[in-house]
Amino acid sequence: MPFFRTPALLRHAFPSCYWQIPKPLHEQPTLYLTFDDGPVPEATPDVLDVLDRYGVKASFFCVGDNVRKHPALFREVLRAGHTVGNHTFHHVKGWQTSLTHYLKEVSMCRHVMEDTAGTALPRLFRPPYGRITPKQLCALRKDYAIVMWDILTHDYDPRLQADALIPQLKPLLRHGSILVFHDSIKAYPRMIRLLPAIIEAALARGFSFATLEEGLAPTLHALTPTASYKSSS
Ligand SMILES: [Zn+2]
């Protein structure tokens, strides 16, 4: 059985990362939906449609090379009021990448995102596969809020069925949870069925949704070096 909730041992190994939003802005129970690996035309527009239908704002950890290939789609994500974060340029594995190369990957991703957006963006980073070495983490956390997750949906696993995942995931929702979905071709068949089911279950239980930019606003403002950065909220 896969882990849906991140084990406490792993959280304790990386205490400087965000696994949940510790002090949610609102009194009301709030969830943070995140989508990794886009933007791609085969998945991201449908995610935007679902989020729009429910009036939900979310956060997208983008792969720089996908932003380069699909700049208009990236701008569409921003225009819809969602937050974007950095997921490296080529979706590299931290454990197999030197510190210098890893930092270059993050920097390339930031540049293509900010050039495409035409503005500075919030300093959010999620390591691909959740794999990052202590040295990489130490170097990046000076400039970025490193965001992991509370609940992994396993939407990328073709051995699992969306119908079986939904009842496993619903009881795990809690105030401040960060959920990971993927706007990727591989995850699409499960993700596109899970997403509305999870949103509806959450709304029925009184949860609201916010972006990581809202949930981590004080941290992000402290990290942002330029005066040009403005919170979209
Ligand atoms: Zn990824």
From TrEMBL:
<dbReference type="GO" id="GO:0016810">
    <property type="term" value="F:hydrolase activity, acting on carbon-nitrogen (but not peptide) bonds"/>
</dbReference>
<dbReference type="GO" id="GO:0016020">
    <property type="term" value="C:membrane"/>
</dbReference>
<keyword id="KW-0479">Metal-binding</keyword>
<dbReference type="InterPro" id="IPR011330">
    <property type="entry name" value="Glyco_hydro/deAcase_b/a-brl"/>
</dbReference>
<feature type="domain" description="NodB homology">
    <location>
        <begin position="29"/>
        <end position="210"/>
    </location>
</feature>
<protein>
    <submittedName>
        <fullName>Peptidoglycan/xylan/chitin deacetylase (PgdA/CDA1 family)</fullName>
    </submittedName>
</protein>
<dbReference type="GO" id="GO:0046872">
    <property type="term" value="F:metal ion binding"/>
</dbReference>
<dbReference type="GO" id="GO:0005975">
    <property type="term" value="P:carbohydrate metabolic process"/>
</dbReference>
<dbReference type="InterPro" id="IPR050248">
    <property type="entry name" value="Polysacc_deacetylase_ArnD"/>
</dbReference>
<dbReference type="Pfam" id="PF01522">
    <property type="entry name" value="Polysacc_deac_1"/>
</dbReference>
<keyword id="KW-0378">Hydrolase</keyword>
<dbReference type="InterPro" id="IPR002509">
    <property type="entry name" value="NODB_dom"/>
</dbReference>
